[in-house]
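Practice problem. Given the sequence and the SMILES for magnesium ion, write out the predicted structure.
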Amino acid sequence: MSIKLAVLFGGQSHEHPVSLMSVTSVLNNLDKKYDIYMVGITASGCWYHYSGPVSDIENGDWEKHPDNTEIILSTNPEHHGFYEIENNKYVYVHVILPILHGRNGEDGTIQGLCQLANIPCVSCDLTSSAMAMDKEFTHLIAESYGVPMAKYVALHRRDYHNPDELYDRLVKMLGLPFYVKPSKEGSSFGAHKISNHEDFVKGFDDAFKYDDKILAEEFISGTEVGCGIMGDDTVGEVFEIVVETEMYGYAEKYDGYKTNIYVPTKNLSKEQEEEVKRLSKVVYKALGCDVLGRADFFASDRIIFNEINLIPGFTSHSLYPASFKGAGMDYTTLLNNLIDIALKRGTNE
Ligand SMILES: Nc1ncnc2c1ncn2[C@@H]1O[C@H](COP(=O)(O)OP(=O)(O)O)[C@@H](O)[C@H]1O
Ligand SMILES: [Mg+2]
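Answer key:
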């Protein structure tokens, strides 16, 4: 009997369009051995079983497909799957592959739902996902394990009363320029380099649009590097992103805008690459990760940890597949391995 694999995409997240890109690559590369059950989640949170062509996903046309059937993930472990409302029937699935980035997908919510339903999920568990989604909590944990990081301060909206005073305080603490970004966001949404008071007013306003908590961070110059991890602590090859623009923003990430990705790296020594791998494992394990993740760093005079993504981008030019391709694992094998890890781990936390 073939493995019935539910592939989740879309989601209630600012990164909904990124998920559509990622899942298109995933579906085009998944091994034919799986019996795939596609689950599209609209930006407003409606779940549908989608059975149309993969080519209609990325542009959003999947939502208009006449055969879409509204579904619910049953939290009754006996059903082990989805309830199709119109058809009044349960569909058993062996495993769930959530290709959902950011809020309501990467942050522990879906992972918790799968745990309740007792269905193996190709993702780290609820706790690690929630911690990794929140950059302040990730920093606190990584810091306690001695991982080098930029100086930072977490700011809550409720404390943001006097921007002038705050600006002076942050400049004293972090120097200029510094960085602001929402604590729980991705794809560089709301992330800004602050070089003066005007940037600060705009940048803070924008960052707070995405989250009630933001981080102000010391600016780190240098290239961005990192590596993929899977299972207990199998690391991929180290990648390096060399961008001609100011930051690794949305256009650079998804349109390949003025971006070159090197695997292995172009500018790092073997020792520096080993350090990236070592620190990736430290952070991954400290957060309790055990299925997949991608740890990101800055390479300046030393290797400085930035963040870890537990459902990293999966487009054909994304870093996670590139990291494992560099280690000799093609995309299809990578997905097979991740699904096997999830099935083996099961739901017994
Ligand atoms: N402290 C920093 N110094 C310099 N650049 C930064 C800093 N923090 C973030 N950036 C830039 O902003 C981008 C997005 O920030 P990141 O923390 O990775 O959040 P996201 O979850 O949105 O990817 C990074 O890839 C990097 O280009
Ligand atoms: Mg990032």
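Check your answer against the key. The chain has three domains: 4-121, 132-147+221-345, 152-218.
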